[in-house]
Each structure stands twice: as C-alpha cells, then as structure tokens.
C-alpha cells in the first residue's frame, strides 16, 4: 500500500525527503520542491504569448490565457452561465441551491462565499484596514476606498452613451440610463405603480389602496 496513503489513516507524520535549502520546508516529491523554489528565486518560466505576462505555474498561465480568448469552459447546468474558473462555477451554483456554507461565529449569519464572511466580520470587529492617503478616512473594504478616492480626484469614469453625462460609479450610471430607456423595474405590490429607482418606491410613494407603505417587487 502507498506509504503516503497509509500515513493519512495512521496519523503518522508524512515522509518528506526533499527539503528546501532556503527555508527548510519539506516535500514528498522532487517536482513539488522545484515548484516551491520559484517562491524564493522569483522565476516565472511560463509566459503569455499575447501580452507577455509571466507566471510561476503553468496552470496560472492557462487560466490567464482565458482573459484573451474569452473561453469559459465551466458551465452551469441550471442557467447555462459560463465561467473561466471551476471555483467560480462552484460559488455560482450556490445561487441556485441556496447553500451558505460560511457562518459567522458571532451572530450566526451565513454566506455563500468566504470573502463575504470576512467582510461581514469587520462589522463586529470594527476593523477598517483600507485608509485614504489624502484625508485619512478608513474603510472596511477596498471597493469603498476606491469609490471614496473619486471624491478627491473628481474622476467620473462611467459615461452615458446617450447624453454623455458622466458618473463616479456604475450604479449611478445604471440609474441614469433608465431616464433614456424609460425602464421602471421596481413596482408596488399593492397598486402596481412602477419606479425607475428603488428609493423612490421606498420614500416617495404611499399606497393609498393598501393604506400602508409599499412593498417592493422587482420586475
């Protein structure tokens, strides 16, 4: 029987005869040691023929090539959506199954992906690792910092194809575009009145028919 397999059952420390001369880390096969050595040497033997970017691992190059080819070999059996990485397909499947394997130890709230759990934990710890170099304001997630930086630079990279008006964020551009398309995706479940922005449904509309505030239905 394979010695490595037996160790998995007996709990014995695995035999790792190939050791790194730099950090001492051991490996079971020489191939893994040679791959590890690149961490110390910085060697990146696998290069992209399109853009020249280089990688330590052949698999990383294969994954990168899909950026250029647009290939999405991993498809969802439910909705048909394709993905470049198998891991992204696994995360997507949870949208259909409702599975939320990552749970918060503090409040019990559960999440589909680990990244969302890590972001949520900062609500409990108050940690804000991303700071603005200009005003010092701090943020829990990098995305919020990048959005904040536009307040200082005045940069508005999202432009309307119809009228040319520019916006700091994609969400605001999406809202604005509905002025041109006349799209109103948010409707009152009591009276059926529709709105192009959800906050208008929440704050400006009082359904007289139901004599109560509207509840949201997205069309």
Automatic annotation (TrEMBL):
InterPro entries: Znf_C2H2_sf, Znf_C2H2_type. The keyword Signal does not apply. Residues 18-45, 46-73, 74-101, 102-129, 130-157, 158-185 form the C2H2-type domain. Its main location: nucleus. One of its GO terms (cellular component) is nucleus. It is found in: Nucleus. GO terms for molecular function: DNA binding; DNA-binding transcription factor activity, RNA polymerase II-specific; identical protein binding; zinc ion binding. SUPFAM superfamilies: beta-beta-alpha zinc fingers. Keywords: DNA-binding, Metal-binding, Nucleus, Repeat, Transcription, Transcription regulation, Zinc, Zinc-finger. May be involved in transcriptional regulation. Belongs to the krueppel C2H2-type zinc-finger protein family. This is C2H2-type domain-containing protein. It comes from Seriola lalandi dorsalis.
């Amino acid at each position: 029987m394979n010695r490595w397999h037996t160790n998995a059952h007996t709990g014995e420390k695995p035999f790792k005869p190939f050791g790194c001369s730099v950090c001492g880390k051991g490996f079971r096969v020489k191939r893994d040691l040679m791959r590890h050595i690149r961490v110390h040497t910085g060697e990146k033997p696998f290069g992209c023929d399109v853009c020249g970017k280089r990688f330590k691992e052949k698999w990383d190059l294969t994954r990168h090539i899909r950026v250029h080819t647009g290939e999405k070999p991993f498809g969802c059996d439910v909705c048909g959506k394709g993905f470049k990485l198998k891991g992204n397909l696994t995360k997507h499947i949870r949208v259909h199954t409702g599975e939320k394997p990552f749970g918060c130890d503090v409040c019990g709230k559960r999440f589909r992906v680990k990244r969302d759990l890590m972001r949520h934990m900062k609500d409990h710890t108050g940690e804000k690792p991303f700071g603005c170099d200009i005003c010092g304001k701090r943020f829990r997630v990098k995305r919020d910092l990048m959005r904040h930086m536009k307040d200082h630079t005045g940069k508005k990279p999202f432009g309307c194809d119809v009228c040319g008006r520019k916006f700091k964020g994609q969400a605001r551009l999406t809202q604005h575009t509905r002025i041109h398309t006349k799209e109103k995706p948010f409707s009152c479940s009591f009276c059926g009145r529709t709105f192009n922005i959800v906050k208008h449904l929440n704050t400006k509309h009082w359904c007289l028919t139901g004599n109560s505030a509207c509840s949201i239905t997205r069309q």
